[in-house]
Inverse folding.
């Protein structure tokens, strides 16, 4: 006889991926519960991409208000009030959390507001000691910001805490060279902070196209953001006045009011009972899964950042959908990880999809590249010298566009549509045959020769 469990599916973690998997599995007829020890919505909604993007919007008004004068608007003296933006953003986060909760409720998913750990192949234990049986267990606990093992590192904060600052600092040091570091560098700079970005390596955004990331570095330097490369942290000391003194290898100490760690994220697998249950983990604690999101224990699956495959919210959502359709919907589905678009909401933003030029050279030999280096119309009238750069990478053997990379205003918004062309395998000739939409920045994508 088939053993009966309390639930067909028990999900640990109610982030974007866990919520999608829960509601879709329930829609397929499964009895589903999801445990969340913090807040429904996960990193993206509560302390990640959503509130960060709202800060990006808020920060951009600093330039927009300056530009408005060149467009005939009489703009008086403006002052920025951080508590107003902070509180409005946190209120929006709370609203979205409620929506996520309503989604689960409408799909008859039981929400357990406490920590859950794995205590067997088909059993989880709740924080209050209750043991629950489940035919299938899904781990969707996400990841957390890494704080390096440096003396005094605890004096810094991470992206988790940055949305709750009591006041805007005058000086900020950001540790890291990835997308989180560069996004907050732009945000704090627009809020009139002196920003120093410290990276232990010799480049920023190493997974993005070299020309594009070099353009961001050039623009950031022109704006007044400082960069220190090849500068590992030695220690952090808190001064009597509450400021911080940061010691770097081979560099003079830096005095700052705030230190933000943005040096990477690690999967949330500690103390979940996974290894005792027989779940194989990678060297960084990531759950090892196959193409169907199944772990080494057949009844235990994992999706999203906890697997450390592609740490992007839409990927976690797609994985959650594929898991639920495969296991409970009788619709075997696998996620295609090729040509995933990504963006950096820096100032200006970066967006890219497909192969970079260097990747194409390694895989294809001698790809063709086309670039458009231009000053957007708005920047011309505003008196800004900031230039945009668009780039197409083309496989010379079949004329397919295998990569699109761009930096400039609204680059992520433009790239989403352009990414469809790369995913569909369209050719450079088909780009050329498309009539330009004028006057727009996006028309440059079909005018490169």
């Amino acid at each position: 006889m088939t053993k009966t469990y309390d639930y067909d599916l028990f999900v640990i973690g109610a982030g974007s991926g866990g919520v999608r998997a829960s509601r879709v599995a329930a829609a397929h007829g499964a009895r589903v519960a999801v445990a969340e020890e913090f807040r429904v919505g996960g990193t993206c909604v509560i302390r990640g991409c959503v509130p960060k993007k709202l800060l990006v919007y808020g920060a951009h008004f600093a330039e927009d208000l300056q530009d408005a004068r060149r467009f005939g608007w009489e703009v008086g003296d403006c002052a920025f009030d951080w508590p107003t933006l902070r509180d409005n953003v946190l209120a929006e986060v709370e609203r979205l959390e409620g929506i996520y909760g309503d989604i689960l409720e409408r799909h008859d998913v039981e929400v357990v507001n406490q920590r859950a750990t794995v205590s067997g192949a088909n059993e989880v234990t709740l924080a209050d000691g209750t043991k629950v049986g489940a035919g299938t267990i899904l781990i969707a606990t996400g990841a957390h910001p890494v704080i390096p093992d440096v003396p005094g590192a605890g004096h810094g904060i991470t992206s988790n805490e940055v949305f709750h600052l009591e006041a805007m600092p005058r000086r900020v040091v950001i540790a890291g060279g990835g997308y989180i570091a560069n996004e907050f560098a732009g945000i704090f700079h627009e809020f009139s902070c002196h920003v120093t970005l410290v990276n232990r390596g010799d480049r920023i955004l190493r997974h993005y196209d070299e020309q594009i990331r070099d353009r961001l570095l050039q623009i950031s330097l022109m704006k007044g953001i400082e960069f220190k490369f090849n500068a590992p942290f030695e220690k952090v000391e808190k001064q009597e006045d509450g400021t911080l003194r940061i010691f770097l290898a081979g560099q003079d100490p830096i005095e700052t009011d705030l230190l933000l760690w943005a040096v990477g994220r690690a999967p949330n697998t500690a103390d979940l009972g996974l290894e005792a249950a027989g779940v194989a983990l990678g060297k960084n604690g990531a759950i090892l899964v196959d193409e169907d999101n199944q772990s080494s224990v057949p009844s235990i699956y994992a999706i999203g950042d906890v697997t450390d495959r592609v740490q992007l919210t839409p990927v976690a959502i797609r994985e959650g959908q594929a898991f639920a359709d495969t296991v409970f919907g009788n619709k075997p589905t696998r996620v295609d990880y090729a040509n995933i678009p990504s963006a950096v909401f820096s100032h200006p933003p970066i967006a890219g999809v497909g192969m970079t030029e260097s990747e194409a050279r390694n895989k294809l030999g001698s790809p063709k590249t086309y670039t458009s280096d231009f000053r957007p119309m708005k920047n011309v009238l505003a008196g800004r010298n900031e230039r945009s750069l668009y780039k197409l990478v083309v496989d010379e053997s079949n004329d397919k566009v295998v990569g699109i990379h761009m930096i400039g205003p609204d680059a992520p918004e433009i790239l989403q549509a352009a990414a469809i062309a790369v995913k569909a395998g369209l050719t450079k000739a088909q780009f050329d045959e498309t009539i330009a939409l004028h006057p727009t920045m996006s028309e440059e994508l079909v005018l490169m020769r």
